[in-house]
Amino acid sequence: MSHTSALLVIDMQNAPVAIAYRAAETVAVIAGLRERARVAGVPVVMIQDQGAGMEAGTEGWRIVPELAPAADEAVVHKASPDSFLDTDLDKVLKVLGVTEVVVTGFATEICVDTTARQALSHRYDLVLVADGHTTSVRLDGGEYASPGQSIAHHNEIFRNIDFPGRSIRVLPASEVVFAAAENLSR
Question: Which residue ranges does the record assign to the Isochorismatase-like domain (predicted)?
Fold first, then answer.
């Protein structure tokens, strides 16, 4: 199956990454994918949360230096966990001719999950990068699953979820292949 892919990088900003589980490893995985996408001519779309506690222009709001957007990379600003809601993400992807999104970022059970499901509802095929998303370290103990369990849980859900007419794959970054000639991701 032929796809025209885009790499989505969700909320990899200073404030969230500062509280992220396996932050350095996740940033490195995403940076590696981004480089491979760029070499293959696959578009990279940075998604940047803004609002209460993430005011535009503040240090916490900025995308981490290792993933700072290049001049030719689209940046979509959002104010909810859904990267499609009240944003131009769908328009950006359509203009680029994208049929499949490769999803990475923060936080697994909130913005990553919501955006991945909404991508399917917007008729995009999906690759969830198994080692390319993370969540917060659980300092309060609460009722949340541990970060490792949450990541594994969401990977497993997306391995088993069914959206008719959509291709859904969960792959480690090492198995995501961006083919330059046809913009294929397998």
Answer: 5-136
pLDDT along the chain (186 residues), means of 10: 87 97 98 96 97 91 97 96 98 95 97 98 97 90 88 97 95 86 41
- Identify any residues that bridge with 76 across adjacent strands, giving them in sequence order: 47
pTM over 0.85: yes
Token pair, residue 172, equals 């480690």
Task: Report which of 40, 8, 37, 38 is spatially closest to residue 106, judged by C-alpha positions.
Answer: 8
Nearest to 123 by CA among 157, 91, 165: 165
CA dihedral 113, 25, 101, 58 (to 10 degrees): 80
3-state secondary structure of 172: coil
Domain count, the chain: 1
CATH code of 138's domain:
3.40.50.850
Phi, psi for residue 24 in degrees, rounded to 5: -60, -40
H/E run at residue 44: strand 44-49
Distance between CA atoms of residues 63 and 115, nearest Å: 18
How many Å apart are CA 180 and CA 34, to the nearest integer?
A: 13
